[in-house]
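user: Please review this fold.
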Amino acid sequence: MTKLRLAIVGAGPAGIYAADILLKAERKFDVSIDLFDQLPAPYGLVRYGVAPDHPRIKGIITALRDVLDRGDIRIFGNVRFGEDITLDDLKQHYHAVIFSTGAIRDADLDIAGIDAAGSYGAADFVSWYDGHPDFPREWPLDAASVAVLGNGNVALDVARMLAKHPEDLLPTEIPDNVFEGLKASPVTDVHVFGRRGPAQVKFTPLELRELGELRDVDMVVYDEDFDYDEASRAAIASNKQVMVIDRVLQSWRQRPSVNNAGGEASRRLHLHFYAKPLEIRKDAGGRVAALVYERTRPDGEGGVVGTGEIREVAVQSLYRAVGYFGSPLPGVPFDKRHGVIPNHEGQVLRKDSNERVPGVYATGWIKRGPVGLIGHTKSDAMETIRHLINDQGSWWQPVDPSEAAILTLLASRGVRWTDLEGWHRLDQHEVALGAPQERARVKVVDRDEMVRVSRGE
């Protein structure tokens, strides 16, 4: 019986699903899987990319935990690919590797003034409020009026976190420094801008509904955005998700805060549709002063065209939530244009040809780009695993595939890796920190402290 020693780089949902699918697959070989991650804790974007007030989505962690707690997958946390281990190292000790490193940086937005002080990427802000250990502990929340560019779930998460009263986040796992930062924020108005209309948004009904449930926050929508064209009406009639979104927005139109008239809340969250960003206007000091945008209109086919009407909204900071983008990995082919590892159904291809790279695979967002919900990651991983199994004849031939070899290598390099038992220690420690305040947990943010707790030092 062939024994497969597999390395998976990236311990988020994509990597864990891939490991689980392979272990459950009918196969003619034995499997031993090591899961590596640069962070001391597993779960990737579920831990560090989902807003803390989303317990339903974070419930996915329960399913991922069940996979890891079976004990048939080894975890090596706090191990940086390209520094602590390399692709050449993996070839020495494994038959194949799957990269599932995701996409964690912001896609670019090429408009004038995007480099202004106070102009931020949403992904960086998300990493801050989720307590990512590799991001600064402080965030400049000094604006009364804020713009958020984008009409996806991340844009709504960012808008909600900015507008929500921080006291309402206390039952969650929000880090202490994030709570204190949000508490000091002078924000009164958050403006969300999307190029297209209400029937073409990318966010889900659940995300939208949550906005309308915020305490002491008025939802502001504008009647001019609801003069639907035939394509929009068709979308509402034929797509249940679009129909629910329209129903929620229409209910907000009945509230007294619509068009800025008569709302009594201390904060307002505005949704602007048919707004194409053109420029971030700066003040004399180079800071964000206003967003300049062009009013668009439907083109009759689900898209939009410009009207030539230019508008301006005064804001003091701005967040672009126009998508995530993958990062290159040392020694691994990378498509700079699309931010992914070039591949055919998960089989990695050389950068300038369609020639396969033997033994190297990809899954998740680094494979297909940052599209789809977490559930899509399972089918994505199944596709990659199917090819890996069928490619048995082209795997690497490692010099030392023993399970002890990688331990010896990491120890020789002084890597302070964390394992599954260490994650259990950290998990219990965070839950215990939250217990006195009846909070879900208090997330440990400092990397060194995470490692010390995990290693029982």
Q: What stands out?
A: The chain has a mean pLDDT of 92. The CA atoms of residues 105 and 325 lie 5 Å apart. The longest helix spans residues 376-390.
